[in-house]
């Protein structure tokens, strides 16, 4: 009974917050980035709180929060044509999608840094190295898809034309992340800075991935001896 009441309170507070946010948006026309900075943490925290029975560890809560944010991104994409109960133009729709992707990218990588700090402080035992490796692969995959989503919304230069194609965006995201840089697809305008940031983030992730592989290999040899 107590858990039912707690869940009801969480849902009620979330709904009231979204209603207030909707009213503020209608009155003050909040920027796209501001809406998602507010709405994503609120909804993701609600998702996490509603699934208390699954929260066995801090590590799992971090992963769950991250996945909840990304799932919410695609749910809000489906609702974006009537976002906050009002019709919006194509330009506003694109701004919403760009802002949503940026907020998700920042959230995912902030959570990754928190998890990395948790790992380097020795709070994760050797038996969880495989789990950490799998989690790192998940973080890398999410980053590649989220960056591709941003490029898809803003467009890329392909054969002299600006194209909005997800396959091309995903290809460019993978090439940029791995710092291959074939040059057949190019960023333009603000995308250049985003692509540079993605390449730097990719370097960091790949270095950590190699470190985890070496650590796992070392632990395997130690256990055998």
UniProtKB/TrEMBL annotation:
It comes from Pseudoalteromonas caenipelagi. It comes from the Bacteria. The keyword ATP-binding does not apply. This is Potassium channel domain-containing protein. Residues 145-215 form the Potassium channel domain. The chain crosses the membrane at residues 7-24, 30-50, 62-79, 99-121, 128-148, 193-216. Pfam families: Ion_trans_2 (PF07885). Keywords: Membrane, Transmembrane, Transmembrane helix. InterPro entries: K_chnl_dom (IPR013099). The keyword NADP does not apply.
